[in-house]
From TrEMBL:
Gene: ftsW
Reactions this protein catalyses: [GlcNAc-(1->4)-Mur2Ac(oyl-L-Ala-gamma-D-Glu-L-Lys-D-Ala-D-Ala)](n)-di-trans,octa-cis-undecaprenyl diphosphate + beta-D-GlcNAc-(1->4)-Mur2Ac(oyl-L-Ala-gamma-D-Glu-L-Lys-D-Ala-D-Ala)-di-trans,octa-cis-undecaprenyl diphosphate = [GlcNAc-(1->4)-Mur2Ac(oyl-L-Ala-gamma-D-Glu-L-Lys-D-Ala-D-Ala)](n+1)-di-trans,octa-cis-undecaprenyl diphosphate + di-trans,octa-cis-undecaprenyl diphosphate + H(+)
Reported function: Peptidoglycan polymerase that is essential for cell division.
Membrane topology: Multi-pass membrane protein
Keyword line: Cell cycle, Cell division, Cell inner membrane, Cell membrane, Cell shape, Cell wall biogenesis/degradation, Glycosyltransferase, Membrane, Peptidoglycan synthesis, Transferase, Transmembrane, Transmembrane helix
Protein name per Swiss-Prot or TrEMBL: Probable peptidoglycan glycosyltransferase FtsW
Record pathway: Cell wall biogenesis; peptidoglycan biosynthesis
HAMAP family attached to this UniProt entry: PGT_FtsW_proteobact (MF_00913)
Family affiliation: Belongs to the SEDS family. FtsW subfamily.
Enzyme class: transferase
Biological source species: Caldimonas brevitalea
Main location as per UniProt: membrane
Amino acid sequence: MSATPQARFGWQALRARLSAGIGGLRRGSELPVRDWVSTGQPGRPQGFDQPLVWVVVALLALGMVMVYSASIALPDSPRFANYANGHFLMRHALFLGIAFVASLVTVQVPMQVWEKYAPWLFVLSLLLLVAVLMPFIGKSVNGARRWIPLGVMAFQPSELAKLAIALYASDYMVRKMEVKQRFFRAVMPMAVAVAVVGLLLLAEPDMGAFMVIATIAMGILFLGGVNGRMFFLITAVLIGAFVLMISFSEWRRERIFAYLNPWDEKYALGKAYQLSHSLIAFGRGEVFGQGLGSSVEKLHYLPEAHTDFLLAVIGEELGFAGVAAVIFAFFWLSRRIFHIGRQAIALDRVFSGLVAQGIGIWMGGQAFINMGVNLGVLPTKGLTLPLMSYGGSAILLNCVALAIVLRVDMENRQLMRGGRA
């Protein structure tokens, strides 16, 4: 039985209207919503950003493989003589398990809760930064007191401080939105908070973590709408502070000189030892590398190969292709996180959007610094490669931060489906 012209016309109009509405949603939110009118199947928007999760899983998996490769020869050294060949692999796997459980719990926490407790989390991070400086609490390694032994892992308060500053700065900007154009009411209190964190970190010392935290705070202030002149003034003050710290610290000056000329005999076996052997590792890797497990520099030539200089081992074993893949993965990850943040702000969820973008600055900025150090573009700093380098507290807080980003994305999608976050 054929349909009447009126019925056929009504169905075509309804179909066009539904197609336009679903297409508009797809263009506006970039959610993978299927046009069920054309396919005949009802579509359901995905509940979370699957590509983001898979890129994170890929980085974690590659990091685990490369940590094992970079650390397998360490028991040959007297310092690690009592360790098994797979010691660091098993520890890293344990850290990943803890991080996975923590991430599952974190993704269940609404962003309203994070906003409510952001100042208290910042206070907790300050207390831990003070505690780590106490001789009977903090653990000193290679002259730096940065860790609190917790049995299962040595916790690094500076990693918690990175997450805390992202949450606190975002909450601060939301509260100061009406006075964000006034320096003393909007910027000065945040500058004092960052300065306190900086003094505690420099007492450890951990200048690398301070650089990352300062970058996160400045980035959130800028994205939150602080006056451009104020932003550049803060930038000038921070650069001046770093210059003064380098000028009045002999060993920091030596690091800068070693960075500028790593092949000088004065520095090649001293301050530039790590950098020179990192560059040798990249040179040996060429285009496609020497093959997985075939690194020579990890055989006690390159110190901290499984932590700060993991990218150099990747370069030697997987070559330019492997390094380029890692760089692209971090670029894509940072861009995706920023997109989620912009989407949240467009939905009038400013706190969630700034938090996501602050975490994007953290991941992208720290990865950039670590890669720059490994490649000789930046002076040597004690910063790990996020998601990949060996380190329990770093892996744990990286995964927790990304779980928060995933929560922001899930709430965005819920709002765009017409529900409540």
